[in-house]
Amino acid sequence: QVQLVESGGGLVQAGGSLRLACAASGRPFSRYFMAWFRQAPGKEREMIANINWSGSNTYYADSVKGRFTISRDNAKNTVYLQMNSLKPEDTAVYYCAALGLVRTYWGQGTQVTVSS
User: Please, what sign has the CA dihedral across residues 67, 56, 38, 60?
Assistant: First the structure.
């Protein structure tokens, strides 16, 4: 399997910033579309961003567009999520995922808490 490990979560004040990182191993990282999901308490997991193999094309959910930026460094086998202007409603467990043609591989998740 592809193994994914997230880091960078924590507690921040509203209006602050965090950068999440997801390090991948096990399979050729550069061949995968990568994505970030989040799941808030009592809500469904939602995709908030994804990026193609080269980093030339990205997608953002309306809820984070203009505030979050997804990027990848294939040489480091790492995908990032830069989160700016954070709001309390951004509080969730954030997961990275490798979107293969056969299946999706998931990281363990990292908690992001935004205080008012």
Answer: positive
